[in-house]
Predict the structure.
Amino acid sequence: MLKTSTTDVVPEKKIKAKQRQGFKLNAKDKYFASLFLGPSLLILGLFVFYPMFKTLYISMFLTNTLGKTTVYVGLENYVKLMSSPDFISSLWVTFVYVIAVTVLTITLGLLLANLASQKLPGMGIFRTLYSVTMGVSVAVAAIFWLFIFNPSTGFFALLSNWLNLPVVNWLTSPTNAMWAVIITTVWMHLGFTFLILLGAIESVPSTLYEAADVEGASSRFQFFHITIPMISPTLFFVSTITIIDAFKSFGLIDLITKGGPTNATNMLVYRIYKDAFYSGNYAKSSAEAIILTVIIAFFTLLQFKFLEKKVNY
Amino acid sequence: MASFDEKAVLKKVFNYILLIALAVVILAPFFIGIWTSFLPTMDIAKGNLFSTNLSLDNYAAAFTKTPILRYLLNTLVISTITMIAQLIFCSMSAYAFVFLKFKFRKTIFTLFLVTMMLPFEAEIIPNFATVKQMGLLDNYAVLIIPFLTSAFGTFMLRQSFMQTPIELKEASDIEGLNHFQFYWNIVLSYNKISMITLGAYSFLGSWNQYLWPMLTTFSNNSRVIQNGLKQLQSEETFNDWGMIQASAAIIVIPTIIVLFIGQHYFKSGMNEGAVK
């Protein structure tokens, strides 16, 4: 309530402030602007804009083993990539991983957030416990899960032995290795997703639920017809974040599977890294990097569109 | 009222069972990891997880036989400097976008937004060449300088600064404060929560870096903890699950404590940045 009243006042005051700044502060503003923006522009220019153009440039040349560009080939590197079954399979693997991670993380996060948003005693403890994986870094997550997946001494292997089930080879079969990476990623992301969705569910006006209670609507009905539509902007936001993060996955893959077995988990960023720093094929790696950039830029734009809507609203 | 309603009680009990079961599943990797960190590797190798030979030997071994303390120190210094730098530079550029009028403001802001669309992972080849040329390889600076500022941080703080009441600006104009004084004394303290959120975000971001430090650092003097763990794990002698789990526990426990303390701020700040 308070908030709406202040925003009502702002436009009028803003005009006043603008008028004053108009003839009084402009010259000084310019000086302060270069002082305040200079450092950030310098860093972003050197480590974000320049390398992007440089990568694009390299991707249109052939390179020698030192990374020096030799012959201009236009889009040939891209054409080669798109007709290479190896690269297409990498793209495919990445898409499968991104979709599985996003669907599982959002579904589980939603389930947890909905449960933890109940007004029951002791709920604070569960909220804290569910968000715990936020504090886990890639290396720690990889170690915890590598032990669980370990075929001889691991926890899953022991469990299978106790239950007289066959031991699953988590890291040597292509499908299972993919699942191992997916499970670990979802586990790592769950805490953050849960916390954001919990915040959104809590900000749904309780009057909506009270009205539904009066009407005798079941809690399942309330979840699908009140909660989900009311938090849909946040759902969209966490989905795009998860998608972008998953496309950029590198650490877990390097630690758990190293892209294997037989390239089953050789995802985009891992491929970019290997082609450049193992094989010394900088041109190919740069073309792959540009393809990754296009994908990430697309999803970031989607996110901006959403933010714009929220701001206008 | 509810306690006499059998159905409501049953539903509550069912809810608690579900809540506890989910908590157990989510926390299981922690429990298993931390439990085995107290067991001798011999027992772990034999699958004897219910062994009663609990001790802190693995921790002692991790601290004395591996450079894990050095890795922790490196990471702590790098993450702290990165966090402070991002707080300063992001808030300065956010201030410029909200309170200053200058030519090309819209264009420069769009440039910042475009930056958020470009993944660092796709730029490692030229960036590696740049830091190599600057002679920064295998040095703290190589893990700090590219991350002194962030477009995301600027954007987040800008959203927050825009909510600063215009009356504060008017009052400070009357008081004769210049932009720097207004920024430092008023805007920063008014937007404390967003600053704390960005601080936590950038600290954890730096703490979790993996690919870039792996490319640019090669010695224990500058290696950070994420890559250090991999290093320990891949060394021949380190097929010692007890000690591996102990080193993972040593790393994860401080971050979880920080997280619990900062959780309240983090949650409200995140939602502010995300949804407002």
Q: What stands out?
A: The beta strands of chain A are 61-63, 69-72. Confidence is low (pLDDT under 50) at residues 1-25 of chain A.
